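Thread: Modeling a multi-component assembly for a lab meeting

Hi all, long-time lurker, first post. My supervisor asked me to bring a structural picture of a complex we are working on to next week's group meeting, and I have zero experience with this. I have the sequence lines for every component (767 residues in total). Could someone generate the structure of the whole assembly? Inputs are pasted exactly as I received them:
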Amino acid sequence: MRFLFNLSFRYKIPLWGSLLIVAATLAVSAALIAQAYNDLQNDLLNSSANLGRILAKNLFPAMLQEEVWRGFEIIRAPLHGEGADNPIQPEMILVLDREQHVFVSSHPKLVPMLADLSRLGEDYTHLSRLIAARPQIDAPIIDYFSPLQIYIAVPIAEEGARLGTLVIVHSKGVFLPRFRVVAWRSAVTGLLILAILLPINWYWGRRTSVPLVELARGIGDVARGVIEHPPAATYLYQDELGQLFETYGVMVKALQKKRLLEQEMIRSERLAAIGRLSAGLAHEINNPLGGMLVALDNFKLRGGHDERTLKTVAMIERGLAQIRDTVGTMLVEARVESRDMAPQDLEDVQMLLAGEAHKREVVIELDSDIASPVALPATLMRQVLINLLLNAIHASEPAGTVRCAMRHADQRLTIEVENAGRIVPPEMMAHLFEPFVSGDETGHGLGLWVTYQIVSQLGGQIAVKSGDCLTRFVVLLPTGATT
Amino acid sequence: MKRMILCLLLAMMPGIVAGSPTMHATEKPLRIGLTPTFPNDQYRPLEAWRLYMERKLNRRVEFVQRDKYIETMDLLRLKKLDFAWVCDYPYVYFKKQVRLLATPVSAGRPYYRSYLIVPASDKTTVSMAQLKGKIFAFTDPYSNTGYLAPRLMLHQVGEDPAHFFGKTFFAWSHRRVLEAVGNGLADGGAVSSHVWETLSIGKPELTSTTRIVSKSEEYGFAPFVAQIGVSDAEFEAMRKLLLEMATDPEGKPLLKELNLDGFIAGDPQLYRRVEQVMRILDEK
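Re: Modeling a multi-component assembly
Sure thing. I ran the full set together rather than chain by chain. Output:
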């Protein structure tokens, strides 16, 4: 039984609906049949009582004159009616005298003349008692229902004298054909109703259940951490289900936003941690490195070294210098004293990159609205611009164009650098701003790291979008008052 | 449909009761009483017979049907009837009030018998004695074959006819006695051989519901009688008509329908046996 209740709404709603429809149809059919049976029974009782009264009136003189044959003819007449299927037609008629002995019967072979009613069987014994209980002349008509027969007893009385009782026997069996007709009609009507209602019910059930099922699946996905868009356009109405869908949509959107924020936060945290780590490392390396370089200088100044030693020392010196450069690059120090960035700096950057651009046959289009100095350190901004533009040049196809737009408004500087060509692979996207992540084999993978560090330390944001053969970096920087 | 049949019946009524008014409007119709001594519910042949009589006698003829012999005898006595076909017993009983007109001939003889019958389902009864205490159907207290003869039978075996049966009733016609016995309403009954044999031809489904247990001795066939006041001319005309039917091409098929060979003038001697039986049973 529980299995039924655990079923999906997809089946449960149509099933329950169908069950209710079937039950209602059955109930209506049963009521119709019961009504028909009742009507039939009432018809029978009325018509039989009428027949009984007429027969009794005619039988009175026949009994009075002991005209058995006349009595026989009177009670036989109603039995030769339209046919056996007429349920109103009696099965047998008996005429009883005062002592409840058969005066005449319509079926003498079954109930012979002179027979004692009370000895004719259980039904008749009971009937005999009923008749005996009402011996008066104006006794009411008795109707008695036995399991198989219906008996109607009418007093044969006239002018204050009662000669006996007329008993009309109906078989309940003749009800059956009529009853069957009614039942058949009810069944056909019921089936028609079912044929109309069941498909409507299934359709309606599906309409209601399918969105519910979708919603349940969607919510289940959310619970498992898979956030997708709400099933679009599966439910278009503004009832509770519609409201549920709307709320679900709002919830999914909020969750998606939250997740993006979380991801962003985690990435920032990671980058910040890497920044702190690399800064710490750089300091720890720089101190002994400085010492080592000073020691090497002192060693060279002392002189008297052979060629071979000097060569080795020079090699060590170069190596250490490389370490210093690398560490220096990693140690982005934004709190350097620098002048504000001026329009002139942009031209310098363009000039500096012209060689590289020319080599790669890439055109740089610079579009800037900066007409006066902006309160941002010029050195760092130059480095940011050079890094982004170099990246773009390297990612461009030959004869491509790199566009750089700069807008300064509302104490905010926006830099947009975009290029057509190779896009950033999705798997790289999450680690793009980490050190030593490079799009090609030529770079050391520190350009974007440095850029990120600078932008972060200046309190700005950097974002990247890559797709459809277009990669665009957007940098937002707050600008203070110019120094 | 029912109304149409009713209209038709009404239209036929004057024909049966009053004859054709156009033909003999002024003349007094001849009134003939018919009783259940023969199967008198064969209305079509009876109407043909009536028209035949009208043609032959050239006057209107009315048939007057009464179930009880005594009523017909009363009508004769009151001169409401000119002729009547009655049973031999009332003829003998009321001999002084009527004249014997003609005796029918069946199977070549002017005699008939009483048949003791039981339901066909009764396979055991072979004699009247076995019906003691049972229900018995008589035809008419003035019937010979349906009342007198079976009583004689009991008398002959030493039983008292008044107390032999458990219950008796009169069905007022041989045919009804046959039906009563066939239906099982009565355990036994007595009927005229003529009625039984005629019905066994026309309605075998009726006679087959009964079984003949025994046949009585012969009695003079139920006669045609004339009211005592009927003129000789009328008497002779009527007798001539009946006697000539057997040779008349129109009369012959009518006789066949009535299951008769014809009529003879009849002789009161034929009915002497009834008188004897009456005396034996002390009915007079």
